[in-house]
Specification:
single chain, about 350 residues, alpha/beta, nine-stranded mixed sheet, six-stranded antiparallel beta barrel, about 20% helix
Length: about 350
Amino acid sequence: MDVKDFDYDLPQELIAQDPLLKRDQSRLLVLDPESGAMEHRHFYDIKNYLRAGDCLVINNTKVIPARLLGAKEETGAKIEVLLLINHGGDNWETLVKPGRKCRKGTRISFGDGLLVGQVTEVMDDGNRMIHFCYQGIWEEVLDRLGQMPLPPYIHHQLEDKNRYQTVYAKHDGSAAAPTAGLHFTPELLKEIRAGGVDIAEVTLHVGLGTFRPVKADRVENHDMHSEYYVVDQEAADKINRARANGGRIIAVGTTSTRTLESVSERDGTISARSGWTKIFIYPGYQFKAIDGLITNFHLPQSTLVMLVSALAGREHILNAYRKAVEERYRFFSFGDAMFIKPVKM
């Protein structure tokens, strides 16, 4: 399967640079995965496509202010560090720019020495392992010095850090937001629960690998990045109960989807567990855990376009994207949403 088969034309002006004032006022393209038929709604209408007995699965990860701007102690050269994975003991796997200036042993100062990092290892993929030293509480230091790691296609400064968090974010660990969840408000979630829909929370800490382009020419040759997930017993019970009673499992975002498909048995039963997943979902994949998906519009030739194509069909997805461009939908992280309806509506 050729990666170029998942390309589409997107005018740059349709890449959303700022979140809407009201989260649930974004537009919603509703796609029938069987016929390819589309409806144009607003996100607050999503409650009308859910029914009593369904289970909505959300990712409660929380984005950390993982972008640190510092300088080499020796020369004062500016260095940007993105925190990727905590390896314990104040040791972080990071992405450093410019990397060529940060060999093993390099010391980087942030906030006039409030935080100091030393490169302890240059990894095979070019990432750097950095050990950090500081006074006080790590979370407080990071909140003071760090910036939200907005995707590279967003060029505007984010005035309110909370707009790059879901309203249900709980567990620190992501370098990027699970953006399909940005459309929900507390009020909308309350309405959904009042309609008899159960809501299960899982955790998948989103890595920057989600933005990395697919470099292989063939889809099958792509090496998927790894991300840490947690599915507790309460979430597993809610999902299994809904399925057993004839309800549908609606995932909010590709991150929730990848989590559920990573812990699902062949019959769709979910097991409570935690670990790392490198699951790569592309056309030909047989879904076991989810019936429907709420998602945003994704980058051309990305693993996320491949995932939604696996669920709704490549032609239906690319046709929907062409229609979204024609109708001037807003794309990517701060953009509008799509709902891929369950086959069993």
